[in-house]
Write a structure and sequence with these properties.
Structural class: alpha/beta
Strand content: 5-15%
Number of strands: 14
Number of domains: 5
Largest sheet: 6 strands, parallel
Strand order of the largest sheet: 2-1-3-4-5-6
Low-confidence stretches: none
Helix content: 40-55%
Shape: globular
Mean pLDDT: 92
Radius of gyration: 29 Å
Amino acid sequence: MAERSIPPLLRRLAKGAWWLATPWRTGERLRARREHARAAADAAALSPFEEAEAVRFAHRRRGDPVLPAPSLDLFDDADIAAAAGLPAQAIHWGLVSAESIRDTATGARFLVDLWRTRADLRERFPQGWTERGRAAFEAWLGSEGAQALGLDGARLARLVAALNADLGARARQAFLSHDRAGRLLPHGLTPAGMRSLWRWFMRRDRQLDGLRLEEIWWLFLQAAQNPGRELMLAYAFAPAWQRARPEGMTVFGRAGFVDWFVAEYGAAGAWLNPATWPDFYTPADQVRVAYRNRPAWRQAHPRAFAGLVHAQAFLSWLTTDQAGLDVEAKNWLRSLDASAIAAELASCGANVIGHFCYPSGLRVSVESMVEGMRVAGVPTSLRDVLTDARDEPRHAEYHGLECHDITILHTQPEPFFDVAYERAHLAESPLRSYRIAYWYWEFDRIPEAWVAHAAQVDEVWAATEFGARGLRERLQIPVRTLFPGVRLAPFTTRSKSHFGLPEAEFTFLFSFHMVSVMERKNPLGLIRAFRQAFRKGEAVRLVLKTSFGDRHPVQMRELRAAAAGAPITLIDEVYSPDEVLSLMNACDAYVSLHRSEGLGLTMAEAMLMGKPVIATGFSGNVDFMDADNSLLVPYRLVPLGTSIPPYDAGLHWAEPSLAEAARMMRRLYDDRGWARELGVRASASARANLSLEAAGQRIAARLAEIRELRTGSLAR
């Protein structure tokens, strides 16, 4: 019987009976209901803006002028309340006194109040919260400001911390990650759209993003201090604008973009003068963008960037009447250091689209790759692939355009590969780039769906030969092994006790991401091996560091049950990169009884840190681990047996010997001197073979080959 034919009363009774029969899922159901209700309310809050956008679009289609939107006066309590459609007490906390400054949050509220009530400070430090003007405002706070405001040393330190904490970043991320809001109000942080965006922020449920009121205030006040910058950021994350005016952020097209923006949104003001905008894009990148959008330039100079001589000739040609540029663009070109710009244009670069803000091994990998390219002198243009609003709030820092003719898509085939540009808020360049997919895989056979994804790119890179073999088996395009390089970023040295761990215990660490499939990471097997290795009362501990356990409640319950009663600490938190390395450094050894790994990044990091490492002797990690620099656990290959998405039941992976793993852990515990020697050998081996410099040089060489292949057939 179709569900819709069941009477509503019977449907409710059936659902109630199911709830009673499965009480352990009540919390999950209630959370789902709350989230559904919040999402519905959030969608309804955008309805007025959709109607306004429809009216604006109709005006533009008829050729009628778009009237300027009412401005928002952030310093007028009555106006901000009217704009939000809420009472003032719902959008402001009341004045915060100096005596009430207890932490960064109250310090931020105090600064918001100070900025709103002190017109003299706004006039003296017009960009006091921005990177350009913050130093001067901070200096004032530390001198005459502290005295005038009655701030002692502790309260002043909290204000300075708030000033430098980029408190608007999470609010900006919430806006950028909201597809509908971004589509309807791309100009929302400019004076032309601020009133509407203010209403949206103030009327929506802040619990959806976990935002605090002062974070929203901070974002708007900071945006008001530099509206030209906000217009540039709006363009950088509005693909529709990028498609409409593809040269909009270059000296060759910014005047046309401003005219277009004024016509579209009825904007006015001195902030629309491009001469006042910050330098987001280098001169070389601006030339690259224009070149990719101007067929006449490419026809006149088809090998414009193929070498220094070609680049110099092209730049010289741009200043002639043949190029058809206006006086402003010609004068700008003549003001540049032509030799330096030509050298930069001749350098083979790449656009890199990847997970720069998602706390995972993918982020570490793409950051390492880009750093290696930088060391090798390869220019890059970077975009972050947004997963959701819980990513680190730095998405707006990655605003590069697709200006190079090679693009590396450093994101897995699923779930974001097909929408990588969309989630990066980037319009694809009209001139298609040569596309490289950088993929990790943990088996000798790739899923069928990957073949279709591969049809969108020109070649695939893998981090290890293990991963590359599975890709080559199925793909018709080139597959190359290009290790991304591994480095230890600077980190804070912290004790075991900082993480709640006993100082006297020998501590094994395993770090993994719950999203990466717990069965593959095999922490349950590690727990069993640990229990075999050690007796009750011995000064030893196993630490399992994971994250996003709330998304996998069943697996988390399994982990806690398996660890119960043993000296095992389970940490389920999203750590910063600094904290991740800090924890690894505090522990004595690293162990991974994985069933399969595409690379094994945490093992490489532990080796670089000089830790003895125990790991399954199978898959990507054996590209850099051997019997001399680590302890490799023997294994047997077994079929999965059942499907574990995204892995098919017929795939094979390793089943490591728990008895051997227990013996190895026991030896490290019993022979600390030998353990230290193994760590020294591991560090030396990793430094020699996993360096960013070597990885960057290999990537640079392949990019140069691609450029030569693409331009070699053109007239020289």
